[in-house]
Amino acid sequence: MRPFFDYYNKITTDYVPDIVAGTPPALQSHAELFAIIRLLKQNPDKKRSELRTTYFANQDADQSPMIGDQNRAFDLALRVMTMITCSLESRSLDTLEAGLQPVPWRHDVSWTQFISSVFPTTEYAGLGTHDEGAATSRQINERVTARRLLKVAGLRFVPTNELGNHLKLNQKDGTVELYHHTSFLKENLMASQEDASGCIPRQIATEVLNSIQRTLFPSTTDATILLRSLVTKHKLDPDCLKFEPSTYQLQGEDTTKYRYLESRLIDLYEELDNPTPRGYLEKWLERKSGARYVMMATLGGVAIAILLGALALAVSIFQAWVGWQQWQHPVEG
Predict the structure, then answer these.
(1) 82: closest CA among 210, 194, 2, 187?
(2) What is the pTM for the complete model shown?
(3) HSE-CB of 225 using CA atoms within 13 angstroms
């Protein structure tokens, strides 16, 4: 859990309260942050505005923190719980300064609804039946490996602390974001074995773990070597190398399918089938392969064929004229 605690120390250190003369900050200690986290966990279906009002209701009006600071305290609490950067507004000054794009968590939305908005499920045509879904899962597990993404699609992995960005493909940069805090996910799963009200839905946590330790980096020597090199190079959570599902899975729990990550894995699957051109030559060839250029090439070929035909006709006429001249004016021996 060391990588998570490093993450926790960084985001709590970056929190600077909005201090106005005569008003206290919304958070004055780690204990107050933990109190907000407990309130959120105990009320998973209550709206954000209701929970914020409840938590700060016991303070006098003249001693109540600024509303903006109250909201930032709740943003920080949920970020600690889920490792997802959120904000009441889609463009928060704090997160933009840190180079992050927060996910909006509105007043009228509970935090569990917020997580569902980060990981929407998408039904793909032809993937509706059980057999078709199983076939798709097999194809994904067989083809969407880290080694093939590197070699075939020319992609590279970029580590991220944002759970919501896991497996997001940036075709322009040729990168795939890789969330690597597997120890944090395992702790969430183990904590929710008895109490289902965990910070992260079990299915989402399980899918993220499986996507790393079963699909991208299966239990093969080559995949393990590649993952170990990424752990060393990018300082990923070393727990990524420990595949131990028996410690967190529940009996009878279905861990073979992807519901929340299916769309992202299919994006990678399609990128392998039709890689985005990256180098200058590949991009030039891609432009030349468009329908407009095919038509231009066809017309050019027709023009060249007509020109060659005209030249051949001219040569034939010239040869016939030379032959006629030789017949009319034979050379005397």
Answers:
(1) 187
(2) 0.78
(3) 4
